[in-house]
Amino acid sequence: MIDIDQANQTAVERMMSARPILRRVVRAADVIPGLAERRLLHAGPPITWEQASGPLRGALMGACIYEGWATDAAAAEKLLASGMVPWEPCHHHYAVGPMAGVISPSMMVYVVENTTHGNFAYSNLNEGYGKVLRYGAYSEEVLNKLRWMNEVMGPVLAAALEVSGEGIDIRALLAESLHMGDEGHNRNKAGSLLYTARLAPWIVRVAPDSDTAASIIKFLADNALSVLNPVMAACKAMADAGHGVAGSTVMTTMARNGTELGIRVSGLGDRWFTGPAGAPDGLYFPGFTAADANLDIGDSTITETAGIGAFAMAAAPAIVTFISGTPQDAVNATLEMYEITVAEHTAFTIPVLGFRGTPTGVDIRKVVELGVTPRINTGIAHREAGVGQVGAGLTRPPLSVFEDAIVAYAATYLD
């Protein structure tokens, strides 16, 4: 007889006890397992070129141009449509990427080590808001920024982390930023400033000159999402620590590719359960409306999977100015998520709720029983390749993916 509650407790305790430390910044192909020199990674569950959304296509095309495999968008599209450049989910390689989530071999990536359980996770560098590769833009301006980030900033960050000696404890940084008004997904203003402050002394020490040091520190400090990518890698390391517990019904992956949303469950191996990605409800940049929006996209829901993001919205009432709603809506979002989770996080707490731990460990049984699906904070990409970000908002996964997972669980464990 399977003790599901005990299995779930084991999975969530592993997630909460994980201690993710940002160790290095390294060229992706040199560190991500299975990433070949002519392969791309992307957000969400597996997808074909025919099914791929505009922003995912745009990001894949941009990565081909960035790598020098194609000279323009038309040549890149031909390569991708022919299958000459294959792509696979980041999650299949212990990696995560925001929005389109595309990681190419020569891009620099953060390396996060879970020192409690010994597993690693990876994510790329954050470009900031607006017209950027992760939202499907691939203009020369976009590619030039990527080149500067990966050829100038990346090596300096790598050297800074090396001379720091101990790296950066992302769990501790997150816990502090939650007490400063962040939720760890769409609002990372405090976390990005903390991250920049921790790196700044080492950047100054290792940068080749003062102008380079100043430009890197300014770039990190001006980008309110600088810390998002190492946070995502940390959450991936935490969630992976809870994966593979026999009998557990805890969700350990939730990701979107712009067409479908997929989840994976601790006790069901690496099988994906997929359904249609949601249409975000939110606020749009001037000149854009919901008619311009793509369906939800990105691996950044690894934050909600680990117990922050929309699950910690009560800690970040100011986020409603970016994704719509009221401060009370932010509190209500967190309170609702306690209904479908296994535990309250021992490291991530919310001052306004009396320092109650964030709701952690989505139990697919509770989701199906109550009909309450996880909340998601998200950016909004334009539906066409090449445009970029057009807003930010809220969405939820389809209930069907959790129902399918329950059916598979019953067939696996209860027949």
Low-confidence stretches: none
From the coordinates shown, what is the CATH architecture of the largest domain?
Alpha-Beta Complex
**Please, how many helices?**
14
Biggest beta sheet attributes: 5 strands, mixed
As for the number of domains, it is 2
In spatial order, strands of the major sheet run: 4-6-5-1-7
Order of helices and strands: HEHEHHEEEEHEHHHHEEEEEHHHEEHEEH
Strand content: 15-25%
User: CATH top level of the largest domain?
Assistant: Alpha Beta
What's the arrangement of secondary structure elements?
Elements lengths: L3 H14 L2 E8 H4 L8 E3 L11 H14 L5 H10 L4 E3 L5 E2 L11 E7 L5 E5 L15 H25 L3 E2 H9 L10 H18 L3 H13 L5 H14 L9 E7 L2 E6 L7 E4 L4 E4 L12 E2 L3 H5 L13 H4 L3 H11 L3 E10 L5 E7 L1 H7 L5 E6 L7 E7 L3 H16 L1
Parallel strand pairs: 2-3, 4-6
Antiparallel strand pairs: 1-5, 1-7, 5-6, 8-9, 8-12, 9-10, 11-16, 13-14, 15-16
Helix pairs in contact: 1-9, 3-4, 5-7, 6-7, 7-8, 13-14
